Amino acid sequence: MSDMEKTHDVSPEDPEKMADLSQNTTYGQGKIKETRYKHADPNDGDEALKAFAGHEGETIVLTPEAERKLLRKIDLNLMPMLCVVYGLNYLDKTTLSYASIMGLQTDIGLKGDNYQWLGSMFYIGYIFWEYPTNRLLQRLPLAKWSAFNIIMWGLTLCCLAAVKNFAGAVAVRFLLGVFEAAVTPGFALFTSQWYTRNEQGTRTGIWFSFNGFAQIFGGLLAYGISVGVKKHGAAIEPWKIVFLTIGLLTATIGCIFLYFMPDNQLNAKFLNPIERLMAVERIRQNQQGVGNKHFKMYQLTEALLDPMTWAFTFFALVADIPNGGISNFFSQLIVSFGYTADQSLLYGTPGGAVEVVALIVCGFLGDRYGNRVLIGMSGMILSMIGMLLIVCLPLSNNSGRLAGYYLTQASPTGFVALLSLISSNVAGYTKKTTVGALYLIAYCAGNIIGPQTFRPQDKPRYTPAEITILVCWGICVLDLGFIALYYRRMNKRNERIRQEPGYTKLDRQEFLDLTDRENPEFVYTL
């Protein structure tokens, strides 16, 4: 056997033994007295158990060479789709910023704080639909529900080219938020079901980094359209061309995603039957499996009582107040440095390159040294330095303030580190989707607040907004430190439980859809 060795028995466990363990297992000599596995149900385990049906007595442990070959195959088939779609996810949100300096505000009659509310309305739709779409991600085929939303958000973006007034733009922006609400939690689920804990930080950093590539591509596209229309004219306004181009591209990519992207290992077209078993086996160490379609109230309760849920949620809220402001106002911010509208489209693109490098490097180093959270802090500290340059340098120092803006684009490293930890450190499918929903609801709330900090009366410096951003990032760094310390303590607790006399591990415990807190075998990634 070149690809597999006989070390793991995958035959079904004895239900009577399971029931006995789930009711009677206790640990310690009076120190730790708590029932474990009380929710372990052999008939309600992970979807991964279906992969083993008909393979009783076989072995599914990969040799290092076979695993490397399989991982390359998974990467080549999954990562391009995740990267391109996530880049479009960012590009679709920022088209409003490009359009704002290409005539949109005048053409549809925006006044006062109308533009700020258009920026926020996307996230109001997002927050409205975030938890329902997370439940649908659990209940429905993951790839198919994701693809439906990708196609619909592309078509919805096209509709922005047809709006005539503020009311129409508000309605379309709301729907755009509804359809894009499935993307980030869905991609976190893809990452957790296909990759091991030690691979998830790097992979999350890579697909999230395509936000930066999208910023580069979007800036160049908007600049080309703006300059081209001025030179040669066009039948419609340049901002409408931007919405139609990016919207139709997104809908097309969504159709490709629908055809090629598997829901999980069990229906992956690019794997043969043996490779599907191997792909499930390689994620055994995650203690999470590939998904469970049943809602479990105890996991919802645990999610709401877990302090890490609220540490994550607090971070997302505070970190995305700056994001909401900068993503909607970066073009206007660059104009405030003394550049023209067309120059702002072009000069915004290097910021995307900074984001790409920061996310990929921090993701790789976080996995390599086993400390995603602390390494994620580095990008946020770099962003704080950049914002200090914007705040402290005089208006006359255009290049210095522009360099400061570029440094602020390293800020997503902390957000992405925690997003990858939702994949790695939150087990139990109902709990994972709940924590993911709360994290992204807070992300939306921050993005709703963010544009409101850029008030028209604060032009050209926007000093109150810039100071708000600086304070928010400082608070986020402290929160990341707390999260790292808490997980370190939880790992010591689980190790102590495993060493207690009488400790018993269930057969195929990894695929019983247990939560991270009820499974002593769980090791939290830092």
UniProtKB/TrEMBL annotation:
<protein>
    <submittedName>
        <fullName>MFS allantoate transporter-like protein</fullName>
    </submittedName>
</protein>
<feature type="transmembrane region" description="Helical">
    <location>
        <begin position="434"/>
        <end position="455"/>
    </location>
</feature>
<feature type="compositionally biased region" description="Basic and acidic residues">
    <location>
        <begin position="1"/>
        <end position="19"/>
    </location>
</feature>
<feature type="transmembrane region" description="Helical">
    <location>
        <begin position="145"/>
        <end position="163"/>
    </location>
</feature>
<keyword id="KW-0472">Membrane</keyword>
<feature type="transmembrane region" description="Helical">
    <location>
        <begin position="402"/>
        <end position="422"/>
    </location>
</feature>
<feature type="domain" description="Major facilitator superfamily (MFS) profile">
    <location>
        <begin position="78"/>
        <end position="491"/>
    </location>
</feature>
<feature type="compositionally biased region" description="Basic and acidic residues">
    <location>
        <begin position="31"/>
        <end position="43"/>
    </location>
</feature>
<keyword id="KW-0813">Transport</keyword>
<feature type="transmembrane region" description="Helical">
    <location>
        <begin position="467"/>
        <end position="487"/>
    </location>
</feature>
<feature type="transmembrane region" description="Helical">
    <location>
        <begin position="170"/>
        <end position="194"/>
    </location>
</feature>
<dbReference type="InterPro" id="IPR036259">
    <property type="entry name" value="MFS_trans_sf"/>
</dbReference>
<feature type="region of interest" description="Disordered">
    <location>
        <begin position="1"/>
        <end position="43"/>
    </location>
</feature>
<comment type="similarity">
    <text>Belongs to the major facilitator superfamily. Allantoate permease family.</text>
</comment>
<feature type="transmembrane region" description="Helical">
    <location>
        <begin position="345"/>
        <end position="366"/>
    </location>
</feature>
<keyword id="KW-1133">Transmembrane helix</keyword>
<dbReference type="GO" id="GO:0022857">
    <property type="term" value="F:transmembrane transporter activity"/>
</dbReference>
<dbReference type="GO" id="GO:0016020">
    <property type="term" value="C:membrane"/>
</dbReference>
<feature type="transmembrane region" description="Helical">
    <location>
        <begin position="206"/>
        <end position="229"/>
    </location>
</feature>
<feature type="transmembrane region" description="Helical">
    <location>
        <begin position="241"/>
        <end position="261"/>
    </location>
</feature>
<feature type="transmembrane region" description="Helical">
    <location>
        <begin position="373"/>
        <end position="396"/>
    </location>
</feature>
<keyword id="KW-0812">Transmembrane</keyword>
<dbReference type="Pfam" id="PF07690">
    <property type="entry name" value="MFS_1"/>
</dbReference>
<dbReference type="InterPro" id="IPR011701">
    <property type="entry name" value="MFS"/>
</dbReference>
<dbReference type="InterPro" id="IPR020846">
    <property type="entry name" value="MFS_dom"/>
</dbReference>
